[in-house]
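Sample entry (162 residues):
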Amino acid sequence: MDHSDSTSVRVITVSAVVVTRPDGAVVTVRKKGTDRFMLPGGKWEPGEAPLDCAVRELGEELGVTLAPERLTPLGRFDTATANEPGFRLISEVFAVETDLPVEPRAEIAEARWLTPTELRSVAGLREHECAPWAPLLVRVAREGLRWGRGSEGDDRDEGEEQ
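Predicted structure, serialized as tokens:
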């Protein structure tokens, strides 16, 4: 959506990361003073590339240090914000699988792992009615992850409808 002719729409640009464990669980984070779980990530610093921001934010928020080439781009997503009314969120989203431990740091109050089954449930939510999840998490679960695109070979239980 083009917001160039509207002064009422303010945009926040961020990088976010889908951090997946080998068992398929994805980590979500809740910032201090908020009640929504979201993907780890944050706002770009001046002159910072989205990939560099993603790597930096993983270190700051979860204590995970990864080389940039480990992250795979999933795309750009335009959603509502989770905690900033009146803003749109433009997110460059990356994915990485790791078995490194995560530890909430900086402004992160809590980290929560979602199983593939829980993520499929999140993917079915309406973005404007998705608490305690962030709209970006819902959109990425629906469109950015393999079961959201209808791929074969995912980890659905045998006999489960697609």
